[in-house]
Amino acid sequence: MNARILLVDDEERFRTTLAKMLKAQGLEVTALGSGREALEELGEKDYDVVVLDMRMPDLDGIATLTEIKKIAPQTEVILLTGHASLDAAVEAMRLGGYDYLLKPCPVEDLLAKIESAYERKITREGK
Predict the structure, then answer these.
(1) 12: which strand partners?
(2) CB neighbours of 100 closer than 8 A, spacing ≥ 6?
(3) pTM score, two decimals?
């Protein structure tokens, strides 16, 4: 899998650790600390899958997801949260999110979601 992953989480230790784990699996990962940084990055470079924290200061996951879908509608977005909320999950899916996982989640589960999101993007693009 040659997926380009954008990891967005305001918790630096979590972000750094998860990025290392994903890179160890052979993924190309860029890790950023805010929704605004993510939107700037997506304006300059293509990514296949965004792994996005729901709760961040400044721009939360829902607001960031909404903007991602305007900038890069083909990019799949997997939302992560440490605060389970059915309403937030439903809203995220309605706005075009691919899936919703609770933190901390096993890396294997996240990898499986990234792989299926990547496959869906590739299939949709007809590659």
Answers:
(1) none
(2) 78, 79, 81, 88, 89, 92, 93
(3) 0.94
Q: What is the pLDDT of residues 55-108, one digit of tens each?
A: 998 899 999 999 999 999 999 999 998 776 778 888 899 999 999 998 888 999
CA 87-88-94 angle, 5° bins: 90
- Count of the separate structural domains present in the chain: 1
Q: Which residue do the tokens 């890069």 mark? A: 72
pLDDT tens for each residue of 10-63: 999 999 999 999 999 999 999 999 999 999 999 999 999 999 999 998 899 999
**Nearest one of 41, 50, 44, 38 to 4, comparing CA atoms:** 50
Amino acid at position 85, single letter: S
Both tokens assigned to 37: 């940084």
What's 109's domain CATH number? 3.40.50.2300
**Domain span including residue 110:** 4-125
